[in-house]
Amino acid sequence: MAQLPADTSLNLIHPEPRMTIPSNHRVDTLHDHLGHDFGCSTPALLNQQRIDHFAQCTGDDQWIHVDVERARAQAPFGGTIAHGMLLLSLIPTAQFELGVYPRDAANVLNYGFDKVRFLAPVPAGSRVVVQVALVEVESKGPGRILVRCSNTAFVQGAPERPVLVAESMGMVMA
């Protein structure tokens, strides 16, 4: 198992979206890119319509997310906020957009999340950016590689205040 050394410091907050894919990024070279910062995703708009749709899909229709008038009057944030799980769901799309998984992979399967923390509320209407870095690569047998990434989400324009941090795992199939 290849892992990022504990003393390696990643610069995990960039103010502008960017994308950097190593030129030799292939399934057989994944371990060579430990610590690589793939940059920031395109901002995702979390407007009320998207929040409402997520609530319908998941059944999580708590008023803090979907009742605009009540949230304005009673919520400590002055309005509705995005679901934490909606934020978490932005990670896989960001990873594919940023090229975390090599193009020569036959498939990539979501393997789960570790160390998930929702650090701050995200008001409806915010644009959220996800920054991704490769932190671990582990062979799981012939043709299978477990990839672990560090993911940090923040509201566009406020990179100094993360709203979500999570480690994600993807099983890369060669």
TrEMBL record:
Gene3D superfamilies: Hotdog Thioesterase. Residues 38-141 form the MaoC-like domain. Pfam families: MaoC_dehydratas. InterPro entries: HotDog_dom_sf (IPR029069), MaoC-like_dom (IPR002539), NodN-like (IPR039375). It comes from the Bacteria. PANTHER family: MAOC-LIKE DEHYDRATASE DOMAIN-CONTAINING PROTEIN (PTHR42993:SF1). This is MaoC family dehydratase. It comes from Variovorax ginsengisoli.
